[in-house]
Design goal:
- The structure holds 2 protein chains of 2 kinds.
- By secondary structure, chain A is an alpha+beta fold.
- In chain A, 50% of the residues lie in helices and 18% in strands.
- A 3-stranded antiparallel beta sheet of chain A has the order 2-1-3.
- Chain A starts with 12 loop residues before the first helix and ends with a strand.
- Chain B has one domain.
- Chain B contains 4 helices and 4 strands.
- A 4-stranded antiparallel beta sheet of chain B has the order 1-2-4-3.
- Classes of the chains: A alpha+beta, B alpha+beta.
- Chains A and B meet through helix 2, helix 4 and strand 3 of A and helix 2, helix 3 and helix 4 of B.
């Protein structure tokens, strides 16, 4: 009986790594305080981008205002990038960083 | 600009410009976009190469978004029936997504003007010595005032008492 032949194409490990990383909720989406964006505008943007109700959006807006920043979401790489793009389209000061925890 | 009424059935918000305000509005919007690229690095990348790639993607996406908005804005100011003249002056009729779009445009102008003024801190007045700085200071205030009116309309759906 012949040995089972090796597959001609080996799985692309780097792609799998990237894909796993994209889904791993290890990225924080952060909004930073600045002296130019109106508080009501920031609340409105959080509601639009994340689909939050007014109360939750206001809570995070106040956190930005009082503490200088607020962690808005913990997501995989692609989703976190998407949120930062959306927030910056509204001219908010938003970044993402890898969650150290 | 004054918020006049909200029509529950159609979801339309009506605003009205007073006196010469419409020409200020049109003039201010014609400056859009004032911002280019991203306001800050996206962050989150593990190495310089990845960071440069992600940053380039962000900047490209923002510039494309602004170019599309600029085109929409030009059409809006030139021929859109949402912005129309009647016997009482200029009237603006927007639905909720239209207000969101206009808020983005005004905020670009507000943030861009603030950057032109050297990013003054809250409570410290901007240095205004040149005509360009004067225009930026006026744009900063006007854009903020119109944003407040639009946000109030969205939230309360009835004019200020």
């Amino acid at each position: 009986m012949p040995d089972i032949a090796e597959p001609l194409t080996k799985p692309d490990v780097s792609k799998q790594e990237k894909s796993r990383e994209s889904l791993d909720p290890g990225y924080l989406v952060i909004c930073w305080n600045d002296p130019v964006n109106l508080m009501d505008y920031v609340t409105h943007v959080f509601q639009r981008v994340f689909g939050w109700n007014r109360q939750k959006a206001e809570f995070h807006m106040m956190e930005v205002h009082n503490n200088g920043k607020s962690v808005l979401a913990r997501e995989g790489l692609e989703k976190a990038e998407f949120y930062v793009h959306q927030l910056q389209m509204y001219s908010l000061h938003a970044t993402m960083e890898k969650d150290a925890a | 600009m004054k918020f006049e009424k909200f029509d529950e059935a159609s979801g339309a918000f009506t605003f009205r410009f007073q006196g010469r305000e419409y020409s200020f509005f049109k003039d201010l919007l014609s400056d859009y976009p004032l911002q280019k690229g991203a306001r800050q690095p996206i962050g989150g990348a593990e190495n310089a190469e990845e960071m440069a790639e992600e940053q380039a993607l962000l900047e490209e996406s923002l510039d494309e978004h602004r170019a599309n908005s600029r085109k929409q804005l030009q059409d809006f100011l030139a021929k859109d029936e949402r912005l129309a003249r009647d016997k009482c002056g200029w009237k603006l009729v927007l639905d909720a997504p239209g207000i969101d779009w206009l808020l983005q445009i005004l905020n670009d102008i507000r943030v861009g003007s603030w950057e032109t003024l050297g990013k003054p801190e809250q409570g410290s007045p901007a240095v205004v010595k040149t005509d360009e700085q004067l225009r930026s200071a006026a744009a900063l205030q006007l854009a903020g005032m119109w944003q407040s009116i639009l946000l109030h309309a969205l939230e309360c759906k009835q004019p200020w008492e």
